[in-house]
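Exercise 7. Given the components listed, write out the predicted structure of the assembled complex. Treat all entries as one system.
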Amino acid sequence: MTNKLYLIQKKRFWYRQSWQVFQVIMMMLFGCYMAYGQGAVRGTVISKADGTSLPGVTVLVKGSVEASVTDVEGAYTINVPNENSILVFSYIGFKSQEITVGGKSVIDVNLEVDIKSLEEVVVVGYGTQRKSDVTSAIAKIGGEDLEVRPVARVDQALQGQLAGVQVQQPSGRPGKGAEIKVRGIGSISAGSNPLYVVDGYPIDATTFSNMNLSDIESIEVLKDAASASIYGSRGSNGVVIITTKQGKSGDLKLEVKTYAGIQNVERLIPMMNTSEWLSMLVDGRDRAWAKTGGDPNAPMADRPRNYQYDPIWKTDPGSMPYYNHQEWPFQAAPMTDFQITASGGSEKAKYLVSADYFKQDGIVKNTDYTRYSFRTNVSVDVNDFLNIGLNLTPSYSIGNDRDTEGKGGVLHTILYANPFLPIRTGVWGESPEYTDYAVSWDGGSNVVSRIENLIDKETRGQMLANVFANVKLAKGLSFKTSFGANYISTKRDRFENQIISRTRAPVGYSWNTTSVNWLNENILNYSTTIATKHSINALAGFTTQYQNDQSGYLKGENYANDLVPTLNAAGAITQGYTQESDWSLMSFLGRVNYSFNNKYLLSASLRRDGSSRFGSDNKWGWFPAVSAGWRVSEEEFMKSIAVISDLKLRASRGTTGNNNIPNYGSIGLLGQSSYLFGTDETLTVGMYPSSISNRNLSWETTTSTDIGIDFGLLQNRIYASVDYYNNQTKDMLLNVPVPSTTGYTSELRNLGRVENKGWEFELATKNIVGKFNWSTNVNLSFNKNKVLELGPGNAPIIGGDWWGQVNITQVGNPIGAYYMLVQDGIFNTAQEIADNPSWAGSQPGDVIIKDTNEDGVVNIDDRAIVGQNQPKYYFGVTNRFSYAGFDLSVLIYGLGGNKIFNDIGREFNGPSDSQKNHYKNWVNRWRSPEEPGDGTTPAASELVTGASSQYTTRHLYDGGFWRIKNVSLGYNVPKAVAQKIKSGGIRIYLTGENLLTKDHYDVGYNPEVNARSGNPLAPGGDYGSYPLARTFILGLNLSF
Amino acid sequence: MKKYILLIAVAMGLSQTACKEDFIDLSPISSANINSFYQSEKDFETAIVGVYNVFQSVHSTMWTEYNEFRGDTYTHIQYSYAEISNNTFQSNTTATMWNTMYRMITYSNIILDRIDAVEMDEGVKARIKGEAQFFRAYAYFALVRIYGDVPLITKEVSTSEALEIGRTPTKEVYAQITMDLTAAIASLPTSLTSAEQGRLTKYAAEVELSRAYMTMSGYPLKENHWADAKPLLEDVINSGQFIFSPTYEEIFTLENEGGAEIILGAKFKIGGVGESTQYQRQFNPTYGGNPLFENGVYESFESGDIRRDFNIAQEYTTLVGATIEALNNTKFDYGYDRASTESGMDFPVQRYTDVLLMYAEVLAEVDGAVPAKSLEILNQVRTRAGLEELAITDLSQFRVAMQKERRSELMFECVRWFDLVRTEMAVDALKAIGHDANENWLLFPLPQTEIDKMQGVLKQNPGY
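Answer.
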């Protein structure tokens, strides 16, 4: 199919412009073309290097508006006015060629590869840079690294790919995001999320969730201050820049991609079976009875009720039924994706339109996620100095959950379900077994009911739209202005019917949020080369951004029945509120890049941010950065060393901020109260200052230093980068206790310092090149996090939930380090207890707690720092093989030096059975000095003594693991075959995710778990998490 | 090209509209803030209500905890009550009182700092200032009696300023109290409209100042301010606005809680609007409270004293209908609504009978003898209680009789502990109920968190 575009009279300027836009729209709608011709020149364009035909080459008649584009076979036809006409052939990555027609009717052209233009380009803040010119620390992923893995979310695709970028996937719940940390944690209360920038638009991290991975051209992560400080007060946690695909000049290209897969739970947690559990129960109840001085031969009825048991549990536990309840919530779950992308354009107008439908059922029954996302990217060269464009990204998603995760969630409660009672269905108390044994489950609602009855639906609609105009003002000087808006609307509806509601009466809830963000950017860009050696690129800009957030909540009760879940059926709205807040940011920015002879590189940037969040005495902040590079390989003395193909040294230093402080944190707020005046005691409203004003409140500041080396050997077949960084964060935002004599008890202040230091290594090798190709990418990162200073008196901050505060943030240690009693075995005899310091009331079979402070007394003061959840290192290894149309890639991801705290063990890893099933390790419990078990699991006892139910290191697990994250096998159908169905390319692939995990965390589903996501003071807890799925996917990509 | 320059100009112009400093000056939308408040008469009227609210919160249960549990009325086996009774404090038990009083002081300070700059009706301004001065003095008077030397802060302070201010000697705190109350007397109204009932009057300030002078005259300052109190009390008595209630019982009724016997009450009401008192639920076993009585409370009443059985019953009926034999505070049963489990009883903070007894005491101390007027007042109160008149001529005997009378008359009204302290009877009273008490018991410990936060500027009281 040939697609020709003809342009109308040059004079009729505005007409032409709208005609172009019309054409673009027509192309988008119908993919059709308009053509007319007479006395034409035709020919074929091929690549000089390998002779392959080049589709999409622009052919122009110089000095006229006549233009054409080559088709799939590289063929073109063009009308020429006369034989003196000159044809210009241009194509990205190739040198342009000019040929005089000279009366020929067939002109075949060989285009030469332009080495310089093929050089990799890196997207940086407010612009792009040649990779060889980069002097800061930027990690990039693009092309097939992104293409090869069909994952639900963009953040998942980053795992294991980039040094210095830790991607943690704590939950496998459909639609749930990963946590991204760039070079460690630099904040206690202002968050660790990097700033996300989509096509130049800085957005909220949540906007990310509805993006379609295959719309993305590349993702760059700005890791050091030199690259991120152009984003000023938002750059401290790094910046993730996402660039979406744009249309390319040429024929309409239609791509259809689809895949379908099946997901399963990766593993189950080993729990005891009925006989094992009953053995523990009998053991524990007998022991408790003995501890209270009870006569072992006394009749069962003499014992307290919770020490009694059915004698058959002891004599013949095998006769009791066994149900492995843990299998119940899980299912084999399908996931599918279908997307279609149309792109193309003329030399002057380019477009890309895509639509994507994604549906994922959860591996836990009745959970799912559906997403519809669309994209339109259009860019038009109105004339030779004006380019205008539009990016439009509407999307909508629906997620359903069933209280799966967290304390009291399905995946928590199912674990301890009584293994000899069948899973309960229907209303509470229906099955006679339950009343017989008076087994209480989960305070009144049962797991199955919630899976079957709960409605908890979250919908999200969003639209990111951006229009821009780029004007060339003079040679090398251009001005870009853009205006964009991001609209997000979320809604969550929850309905607990009569079966699951704790009060047995239906309850309905509804939450909603609406967020509107707009952005205006004006950037002036200038680049020039002076005396061929001095290359200068400078930009200056002014931007404003504003966001308004609104939220609302309603709770409805007094429903007549379960028939209608929405709040209109509620007899009464019993709770509700609406809230609104906003923020604004105004910035000036500038940057100069200077390069001398491509050898010596220097870059300096400066941003000035004014934010509504900052205190009135501190409204504006400066964020400067400088970096320098030396391309040693460009020096004459290096040219003789053939083995070194590239060598660059670089260093940078700069300052970034984290402005993620509360919207009005600096302004003292008023609370409302009331008193009674008058003989009739009329309620009179009063107000009082409820929080203290801090006119100095400001951003958190990070000063970072980065030293790096990039080198390539053997024509870059081996390419490596090494970086060392040192990030010093100060003025951390802390809620600091203040003297009550001020009238307040705490104040938000900028105090405290933390540092992150680390090394990063990246290595890319082409091991075998030829018909059979093998390449390897390795990245390895080390990070050390240390708190240097906290609030007044450096008082440590204890973190965690009420049931277990096992984290501490203390000077000299990492943020949120584990802090608990250290277990040191099990007491065998009363003599051992008498001879050693022990926890008060310890008996044989109870745990030994280490006297860490060596004061001769064992008590709560013996808590010690016993590790951290932040990994000390993490790595990713990708191996890629290809042979004759087949390709195979294998990604391994891993980390180490971290620990996981099993919060859930509080409930069923203690010595008392509490009518709850326990982890399998209780089979190896202490029974007597002769049968000491595994040496860590104490004796079962319904009467808990000593420290056996305390949180000790018994509940702390090594969190290191490595995973075969992904294996993808693809086959590209030969072109000849593809063309039989008029396809430009067919790819079939089979992918497996989470194929194998090697870890030490056998009491949880996922070693990446993080129950208190977003709270760095208490990381790495597990109170029942949604497992990651093992997924097998079969996919097909077609292009036309 | 011109068109594009125009376009750029428009774009720049658009952005210029946003390029003003006020673009980044945003104020909270869903909560009021300090910057936009304290601007008008209405704002200050609203702000002073916020101070009344703190005063109200003190008199729900907190004031009783620090008085009746500390002294020889109540004891408890649980909670902070037990700590206060037994002088076995956890590190932060006394923080609530400390924080509440400094909130009252801060809110008053902000009003006093900012009101002069605002144009408003001068009468309204004077009255609000008087109210703020009263409450500031009220809070310091409470603090100085509970903790002794406390940081004296009389203006809005920043955190760094507050960190510099340590404990101010009791004498200086009292100087501020008398200064504030003297100023308040000058600007508070002498009468209230029916819509203003419950607000402060000049007489409330006079009673408070008299109480301060009497306290300053006793332990620990022992300065002679008896004569200073005399004209103040006379002004209250001669105002003719207050009436010695004909019967004891009718004072403690919902109808009379704003009546002529009451000079100042902390007002409460039922109705699910957050204005009820927790008093009964904390201190009356019928409604869920379970304090115990110290030995000798019931016996401290003379036989035939109608106030004994009015204040204390020997048994009570629980909500489920069981009858339990134990002493029970029945004085404040009125105002309790069983259906909503709320109580709307106003707590009497200043009562006319108290004023008369104070006056009798002041007259005797000024004269150094027992004047007829003092004896007359004492017997007036005794007669209403159904007791026979006394004829005392010896001052020390009079003092004993006076404190005994105050205990019986003002049972549960939170005057007993501070009376014991100022008359130097507290240690003996504590010993009498079995505590190994000493002078350290007369002050409460400072909250440990505050000592920690002040980094050495604040020192703990001896004995803690």
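Discussion: Chain B touches chain A through 76 residues (CB under 8 Å). Strands of chain B lie at 74-75, 262-266, 292-293, 312-317, 323-329, 336-337, 342-343, 347-351.
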